[in-house]
Design brief:
The complex is a heterodimer. By secondary structure, chain A is α/β, with parallel strands linked by helices. Chain A folds into 3 domains: 101 residues, Fumarate Reductase Iron-sulfur Protein, Chain B, domain 2 (Orthogonal Bundle); 161 residues, FAD/NAD(P)-binding domain (3-Layer(bba) Sandwich); 123 residues, FAD/NAD(P)-binding domain, CATH 3.50.50.60. In chain A, strands 3-2-1-4-14 form a 5-stranded parallel β-sheet, sandwiched between helices. In chain A, strand 1, helix 9 and strand 2 form a beta-alpha-beta unit. In chain B, helix 3 packs across helix 5 and helix 8 crosses helix 10. The radius of gyration of chain B is 27 Å and the shape is globular. Chain B is of the alpha/beta class. In chain B, the strands form 6 sheets. Chain B has an 8-stranded parallel barrel, surrounded by 8 helices. A 4-stranded antiparallel β-sheet of chain B has the order 5-6-14-11, with no helix packed on it. Classes of the chains: A alpha/beta, B alpha/beta. At the A-B interface, helix 2, helix 5 and helix 18 of A face helix 11 and helix 15 of B.
């Protein structure tokens, strides 16, 4: 029995995908901020990849200095509002809150953070601006969290910045890949517009950089190039029948969902392959789109899933069923997907081994592959001297983000192999400093 | 079952909880509702000279999300016709013959006092309270706290009242004075039957940061008002104690100031009050709070084995001493319960910045440790700790020695010179001043953003230094 009926209108979509971290009103913010203990050397700060001074901004909210709170947040993290909503706060700041040790509900840091930033965004509070022009130019490839954060910081440092984005909207996976119940498109784009208006970087949309010729042009005109290209499409499973209709990649599925909302079609019975956070998202989203049955199939046991526990709980909460210790061997069907043939597995000494003769077919009419994203190795091979590690990640200096081609810098998923928005935002900002240090030599 | 009833200087009441003379006792309607809810008595909103009130009368002090920990008002005494009030007093007394109705009064001349005292007696009041405390509006007209601050005037007026009073007379004292026992003694000399305290404290409750005016704002401006509410309890307790301990006062005391629950009431009673008056809490939460107050008092008395209120009146007074009588040999130090500690490190930073640097951080854990030899036993860490019973103050002396400052003075062993070896802090370890510089800067100024900001600031400084050359 499905928990949700298929949404047929935008309001119905938003009801099914209601925000997990809804906006706080002023009273809620006062009550919640009053609870903060103002810890010394606060664990929440240390748990934040972008190092936001959390007790400080909470105290600012509490004293009615919401604008000051927004400054505190943004000076550490240009995706302050988005991170407040999409960060896995349960395992970051809120997970580190000392109240957890007292079995008291941790401070709702994410919601407080967005409370402050939303107000700044809506009132178009001018908190930052470009620095005095220093005559240098940086090209940024990819308007995701890493690229936009770098762009803001570089503008702040006086650089002229051009951002080249393959898609039609900024923020990367924040608007194309995050589950809609974590943040709405409007909210993401409002923050992007707010940043663009303050810092004045230029973004050229629908402008993919794919060729050596284009890179030549960039190298010619810019003092440095920042690679914020993220990851590619979903990895193929290399299984027979994968080409059948309704067998889709999770990244592609979520990207469409974010743009089409209630007009997005989903199967009646959906099998999601994978055990990571994207798999949890795809499964939850299928259920919220009205799929009657959603099965999450993972080749190892429940405990070995890469997904955060709260993400799995979220999926379970909307009726998703787990199917563990199974490996897909074939997508069966006749033109369209009709099922997945699995084989049972056992994990012996840490190695997944199939159980011979245990094949079975689980019927379904849609398969979502959440089995990781491909690296953009082909494009990266166009850059001379650029070294990748054995997992296809760009090798870069830990502190400066400089790649093995000194003109190129990088941050975000392309460098870390795939992490949270907050990691990309923090890295992008730090790398902008790296570029500045390099060009100031 | 303990007996909560009192006989306060001849005024009988089913319990010691009275509503103070204030807006909640402005009308017979309110007083009847309060008695119906369980209040034992009510001091009627002050009757007297005619007044006119302003609109916008109250201001509040909030602490974080807690509203009205302090409260002030610029309202004057009753602005209702005297005849209406007298009629309603009579009506309330008819309906509630065993509850206490005390008429608060404030007039000027001897004749006026005589007239109004007779009026309220005829209306059936059980007692009279003389309002010598109002610190705003009335004092400028020579009444209220203007009287309370002049013991001789106070005494004279009490004498006028006693000339005609047939019911008990309580004198309500203002705290806006250096020594509360002076007006208390004047009340006694004048022949009053009891005292009540404290009235409100002259205050400015806050300033509007946009309109540059004090609260409450009346057409863009404000005035000092009278402060009350939970925040004033410590001041009230001290003054109640002063009057209760003074051998010359010897009058029943009605305790007023910051009483919101049974605990507050018990504290007033333990320091000598034998009735208590409540205003702000009733204005904040309504008359319903009386149920918690009577139930809490009842429970407390049962557990302590007190049969009547009088078993506990003043019970803490023998333990309130002058500082010079305290035992200098008593020694406590803090102990952190590691199992309860949640690692907020508020105790560490409080001791480090606000006390005696007697707590240190430890490698590999967020649980701080007490440096026993530096701990002076000040209590600060245990006060800031957010976990109940996590930091406790443990006694370290064996309890056999007792030596007070007074005794040391008599024995000639007190420190007498500026650098006296016998001074208390002489042998406490204190870090070198320069050890403070840059200490744990990354912890007190955390966040990567701050680090960037610091870099920028350092560069700007360097740049401006260069350009100056």
């Amino acid at each position: 029995m499905a928990e949700y009926t298929t949404p047929t209108s935008e309001p119905e979509f938003h009801a099914n995908f209601s925000q997990l971290k809804p906006r706080m009103n002023a009273t809620e913010a006062l009550l919640e901020s009053s609870r903060c203990l103002f810890c010394f050397d606060a664990p929440c700060i240390k748990a934040c990849p972008s190092g936001i001074d959390i007790p400080q901004f909470i105290r600012q909210i509490n004293t009615g200095n919401t604008t000051g709170a927004a400054v505190t947040i943004y000076e550490a993290n240009y995706f302050g509002n988005a991170c407040g909503k999409v960060c896995p706060t349960e395992v970051l700041c809120e997970g580190a809150c000392v109240y957890n040790l007292q079995d008291v509900k941790p401070i709702e840091i994410g919601r407080l953070q967005s409370f402050a930033t939303r107000e700044a965004i809506e009132k178009s509070k001018p908190l930052f601006g470009p620095g005095a022009p220093n005559g240098r130019k940086v090209a940024i490839i990819g308007a995701g969290p890493a690229g936009i954060s770098a762009a803001c910081e570089l503008r702040h440092l006086g650089y002229e910045v051009d951002v080249f984005e393959a898609k039609s909207q900024p923020s990367g996976l924040t608007v194309y890949g995050v589950a809609p119940y974590k943040i709405t498109n409007e909210e993401v784009l409002a923050e992007m517009a707010y940043l663009e208006a303050q810092f004045g970087f230029k973004v050229q949309y629908n402008q993919p950089i794919t060729s050596r010729r284009e890179l030549d042009a960039l190298e010619e005109s810019y003092d440095a190039i920042f690679l914020g290209i993220g990851l590619g499409l979903t990895n193929p499973l290399l299984l027979p029948g994968e080409e059948r209709a309704n067998c889709v990649g999770a990244v592609e599925f979520i990207e469409q969902l974010r743009q089409k909302h209630h007009q997005m079609a989903v199967g009646r019975k959906v099998i999601v392959l994978g055990g990571g956070n994207t798999a949890m998202d795809a499964a939850s989203e299928s259920a919220r789109l009205g799929a009657e049955n959603v099965i999450l199939a993972y080749r190892r046991g429940k405990q070995e899933m890469g997904a955060y526990e709260f993400e799995y709980d979220l999926a379970k909460g909307v009726g998703v069923k787990g199917l563990f210790n199974v490996a897909p061997v074939e997508i069966v069907g006749n033109g369209k997907v009709e099922g997945v043939k699995f084989i049972r597995t056992a994990t012996i000494n840490g190695h997944v081994q199939v159980v011979p003769g245990s094949e079975f077919v689980e019927p379904c009419d849609m398969v979502i592959k959440a089995t990781g994203q491909a690296k953009q190795t082909q494009f990266l091979s166009l850059i001379p001297g650029l070294r990748l590690d054995n997992k296809g990640r760009i090798v870069a200096d830990e502190r400066t983000g400089q790649t093995t081609n000194p003109k190129y810098f990088t941050s975000g998923d392309a460098r870390n192999g795939g992490a949270e928005v907050v990691n990309a935002a923090a890295e992008g900002k730090a790398t902008a400093r790296g570029i500045h240090a390099f060009l100031s030599k | 079952m303990p007996d909560l009833s009192i006989n306060f200087a001849g005024i009988k009441s089913p319990n010691p909880f009275w509503l103070a003379s204030a807006p909640p006792t402005n009308s017979g309607y309110q007083v009847m509702k309060a008695f119906d809810a369980g209040w034992g008595g009510a001091v009627w909103k002050t009757l007297g000279v005619p007044v006119v009130n302003v609109s916008s009368r109250y201001g509040g002090v909030n602490y974080r999300d807690k509203r009205l920990i302090g409260f002030n008002n610029i309202e004057l005494i009753s602005d209702r016709p005297l005849a209406d009030n007298l009629r309603e007093i009579e009506e309330v007394k008819k309906r509630f013959p065993h509850h206490a109705v005390i008429a608060s009064l404030m007039v000027q001349s001897r004749q006026e006092w005589h007239d109004i005292v007779r009026d309220v007696q005829n209306a059936g009041s059980d007692g009279i309270e003389l309002n010598f405390g109002c610190p705003h509006g009335m004092c400028e007209r020579g009444m209220g706290s203007a009287v309370g601050q002049e013991p001789e005037v106070l005494q004279t007026i009490v004498e006028w009242v006693m000339e005609v009073a047939k019911i008990p007379v309580i004198v309500k004292l203002t705290p806006n004075i250096s020594d509360i026992t002076e007006p208390a003694l004047a009340a006694r000399r004048g022949g009053a039957d009891a005292i009540s305290l404290i009235n409100t404290i002259q205050s400015i409750v806050g300033v509007d940061l946009d309109r540059f005016a004090p609260y409450p704002i009346v057409d863009g401006q404000g005035s000092n008002g009278g402060y009350c509410g939970p925040a004033v309890k410590p001041i009230a307790l001290n003054m109640v104690k002063n009057c209760a301990q003074h051998p010359g006062v010897q009058l029943p005391i009605s305790g007023i100031g910051g009483i919101e629950n049974w605990r507050d009431a018990v504290e007033h009673i333990l320091l000598g009050a034998s009735s208590v008056q409540v205003c702000t809490a009733a204005m904040h939460f309504g008359f319903g709070i009386i149920r918690e107050m009577t139930s809490g008092l009842d429970q407390y008395m049962t557990e302590k084995g007190f049969h009547t209120i009088y078993d506990m009146v003043g019970k803490a007074l023998p333990n309130v001493r002058h500082w010079e009588d305290l035992n200098l040999k008593y020694k406590v130090t803090a102990t952190i319960n590691e199992d309860k500690c949640i690692g907020c490190q508020l105790c560490y930073t409080a001791c480090e910045d606000g006390a005696h640097q007697a707590i240190r951080l430890q490698e590999g854990t967020r649980v701080p440790a007490i440096i026993d030899e530096n701990c002076v036993g000040c209590n600060l860490c245990s006060l800031v700790c957010p976990v109940e019973q996590c930091i406790t103050m443990e006694r370290r002396d064996d309890g056999t020695e007792h030596l007070t400052w007074k005794e040391r003075t008599q024995a000639g062993t007190i420190p007498t010179e500026f650098n006296d070896e016998r001074a208390g802090g002489r042998h406490h370890w204190v870090p070198e001043p320069a050890a403070a510089l840059g200490k744990e800067k990354h912890k007190t100024l955390p966040g990567t953003a701050r680090q960037y900001a610091a870099q920028d600031a350092a560069k700007r400084l360097a740049a401006s230094a260069t350009s100056a050359e």
